[in-house]
């Protein structure tokens, strides 16, 4: 609950949900309804940290956060974002632990250049007769 990427166009884009009292109340109601329906956990995405804390404290099921602050029972970070494979702009909650996009782009450029200049493949990359 909160930001639902599959519905971003219906909500006007990638924006934090639950900032105003009405949205916050709707998120809390949705969380209660989900718990009553028997879910084993709830994912909160892109909501204010204070709202995530409230939701966590009112539920008995684990609350997993993605851009919902440190008070959740667990955290999600998309692997492409974590590894630095995603292009900018990134959501505020993303922390990149590597910049593999830069490394991969450089490797692909080097490969293309070597193929164009016939520097690759060398004899050592080929099977003999």
Description:
The radius of gyration is 22 Å and the shape is elongated. The longest helix is centred in the N-terminal third of the chain and has 17 residues, at 21-37. The chain contains four helices and three strands. It has a three-stranded parallel beta sheet. With 129 residues, it is mostly helical. The chain starts with 20 loop residues before the first helix and ends in a 13-residue tail after the last helix.
SSE blueprint:
Layout: H1 21-37, E1 42-45, H2 49-58, E2 63-66, E3 74-75, H3 79-82, H4 100-116
Parallel strand pairs: 1-2, 2-3
Helix pairs in contact: 1-2
Radius of gyration: 22 Å
Helix content: 25-40%
Overall 3D geometry? elongated
Q: Give the neighbour order of strands across the main sheet.
A: 1-2-3
The secondary-structure class comes to mainly alpha
- The share of residues in extended strands comes to 5-15%
Number of strands: 3
Number of helices: 4
Mean pLDDT across residues: 92
Indicate the low-confidence ranges by residue numbers.
none
Reading the helices and strands in chain order gives: HEHEEHH
Could you describe the largest sheet, including whether it forms a barrel?
3 strands, parallel
Termini separation: 62 Å
Describe the structure concisely:
This protein has 129 residues and is mostly helical. It has helices at residues 21-37, 49-58, 79-82, 100-116; strands at 42-45, 63-66, 74-75.
What are the defining features of this structure?
single chain, 129 residues, mainly alpha, three-stranded parallel beta sheet, 4 helices, 3 strands, 37% helix
């Amino acid at each position: 609950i909160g930001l639902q990427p599959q519905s971003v166009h219906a909500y006007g884009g990638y924006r934090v949900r639950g900032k105003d009292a009405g949205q916050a109340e709707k998120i809390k109601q949705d969380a209660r309804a989900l718990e009553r329906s028997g879910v084993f956990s709830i994912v909160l995405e892109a909501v204010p940290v204070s709202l995530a804390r409230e939701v966590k404290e009112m539920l008995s099921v684990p609350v997993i956060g993605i851009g919902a602050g440190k008070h959740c029972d667990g955290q999600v970070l998309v692997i492409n974002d974590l590894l630095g494979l995603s292009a900018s702009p990134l959501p505020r909650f993303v922390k990149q632990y590597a910049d593999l996009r830069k490394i991969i782009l450089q490797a692909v450029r080097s490969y293309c250049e070597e193929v164009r200049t016939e520097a690759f493949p060398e004899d050592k990359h080929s099977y003999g007769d």
